[in-house]
Amino acid sequence: MSNVTTLLDAKSVPEAKAALVCPLRNETYSYRELRDEMNRIGCGLSGLGIQKGDRVCIYLDSSPEYLISYFAIWRIGAVAVPANSVYQAEELLHVVRDAGARAIITDIRGAPVAGAVQEKAPGLAHIICVAGPGNTDAMPGDAVAWSSFPAVPASVRAANCAMDDLCHIQYTAGTTGKPKGAMLSHGNWMTALDAEREALRLRPDDVYLGIYPMGHVGLSWGLAVLRAGGTFVMMERFNPAEYLALAGRYKVTVLAGMPPVIHTLVHAEPGIEEHLRTVRVIISGGGQLLPSVWAAFDKRFHIPVANSYGLSETIVIGSGTTTLPEYPHLTKNYQSVGVAVGYTEVRIVDVDDPEKELGPGEAGEIALRGPSVAKGYWNLPEATATVFRHDGWFLTGDIGYIDEEGILYITDRKKDMIIMSGWKIYPTEVENVIVQHPAVADVAVFGVPDERRGESPVAAVVLKAGAALAEPEFETFCRQHLAGYKVPRTLVIVDDLPRVHGWKLLRRTLREKFGKMPA
């Protein structure tokens, strides 16, 4: 049996110990309570006819129910399809249709969107709605209340799954404008959790403050803490004052971070160091941590940074790299993303010939290989064959080099992806929406440096003859069709866009021209 949820069955962890803490709701789940809720919801899904291999979409804000949904789906051998809670109906519809989801778990806020999706996705048989007491009247008529599933015996066992059995489809935005579903297995997850536990040297007395959205594989850091028998304190959204208060109140030892968070801490008022006195490591990932910000953080707080590199397709550092707290030399002037961890292999290959491996100091495409690399992309055999190589190497699309000591550095991106505060934004997807505005003749979306967020998206728009477009109108239009983080922060009106032979867009030229504009 290889079911990742057996981590909650571990007899070495006291059942009464706090596993998950949700300060916003003043709720704490012990290991026993988390396991019991997992079994209750899992059996409830089975009662609706959800079977091993069926896909179940999760459309919730970060919450205890989101985490329980993952565990419940995996427990019965079904496949979790997490969706971002800020998705609009069109974005959610693509995920549900593409995955062939049979059910969706949502709440009162998301229920109308889920209902609209169900009308266009007849294979979506069930909507399970998280609703508090007195709110069930607001549910869609045919929805099933989360609370209606009955308690089940504690002896319920996990479904028997092979290491290679699919348990998760993680959608990542694609350069074609439509998200691609990375297929992750029980074995991928189990090795990823052990790799992260090893990298952070996690212990049962660790308390982790998590800020990563639960619809993202960054959730794996929290699960790794549970794998180690520690306590996961969750935040729904990052707020600097609350973040510091929770770190102090719960005596947090491991902090989730990202470049904008570390930037915020560096520039915070004096005295906040007291809130972080129990912290022994902070995680950074999802974008470049500027050397100047990293150095300032190190000088002020003296807390090691686990500067990590991985992707959705590798469950973060399940097959990836990181700087390790006990080896400060890996930071290399606050520029590296460390060394391979777990069972990871990393190499640099020629951008035009992935069969050709490059030597130390030579920049090329970063390739990763290891047991947490996804099985491929759901229903996309050609896209899978392009980056998931026959010999097990995964081509990341990122550019970097490895020095003589085996330490990895990221220097550029092969793709045009924008990373803002850890969110990945693919320009083509955003452009496909903007070009539908009646005033827009042509558009290019690109990223400009932003010291706090890493990057911010900018839209360069060519208007139709005689048309006008004000920024408030532009923003409103984008927000109607895109998740908030994908909306360009700046609108630039241009006469034309730089293209090669009139067709291939040169975003690099736009970045060079507008890259120093205020973000």
Automatic annotation (TrEMBL):
Molecular function as annotated in GO: medium-chain fatty acid-CoA ligase activity
Keywords tagged on the record: Ligase
InterPro entries assigned to the protein according to its UniProt record, in alphabetical order: AMP-bd_C, AMP-bd_C_sf, AMP-binding_CS, AMP-dep_synth/lig_dom, ANL_N_sf
Keyword Transcription tagged? no
Gene Ontology terms describing biological process: fatty acid metabolic process
Provide the AMP-binding enzyme C-terminal domain boundaries.
429-499
Quote the SUPFAM superfamilies the UniProt record gives. Answer: Acetyl-CoA synthetase-like
Q: Which domain of life is it from?
A: Archaea
Which stretches make up the AMP-dependent synthetase/ligase domain?
14-378
* Family recorded in the similarity comment: Belongs to the ATP-dependent AMP-binding enzyme family.
Listed name of the protein = AMP-dependent synthetase and ligase
Q: Which organism is it from?
A: Methanoregula boonei (strain DSM 21154 / JCM 14090 / 6A8)
